[in-house]
Amino acid sequence: MDDAISLVDVRLTLGGYEALRGINVAFPQGTSTVIMGPSGCGKSTLLKVAAGLIPPDTGKVLLRGQDIFLLSERGIRELRKSNGFVFQDGALWENKTLFENLALPLEVHFPGLSRTDIAKRVARALERVGLEESAGQRPAALSGGERKIASFLRALVTEPSLVFLDEPTLSIDFSMTEKISHMIHDLKARGTTIIAVTHDPQLTATLADRLVVMDAGNVLVTGEFDEVKRTRDVRARAILSQVLGEIASYDTDLLELLGRDPQDGQN
Q: Who has the most CB within 10 Å: 88, 212, 239, 262?
């Protein structure tokens, strides 16, 4: 399987701290990968480097074999057009309405689209999640969950083939989490390449084809979900137990990982 993105010996220091320490990891085309690890281990930094948002100090970030940071101006535009990034804090343009936030990527990447076509696309996106009546509001008037969904819609409005998700369900209520989870699984069903950072055990269990387990700026283990959850790396097992333990009550394989008898919860 071809790799959509691969990082080769990537190192990055931020604020005097070595955030990424010689990272070598690949994200195959058409798969869903979850990056997990304790807070501050470099997950979000790795995600942003992989997306081309932060350049590494050394090493390469390859998009289908081409170094992202050596692309021509045209290549960078194509990269932005085919990629979508959902930021942890939403990162919406505060001086624009919800409609304008979603319309801007279409205006930039599809200059041939008429205003009518753009309006139709944005309206369909907002109707899908029940936010059509909020189209004229600015982000400050939206709830935290609505802002998160708006960020998600903005990332998807160009129909990207590669999507980066930074804690897509963090700090939002159950109904908003359900809406976002459904959108993520729709992406997965369409064969979109997804690279996600999440502490959500339910989302991890249902989304991830592959796992990347990190600690202190290093990748401890990476590979297929079934392979990684049986790793013998002691630190990686501890991280997996912490993150995935909440869903072990109904997943026999994860109970096995945690060294518990599946029958314990049935007595």
A: 212
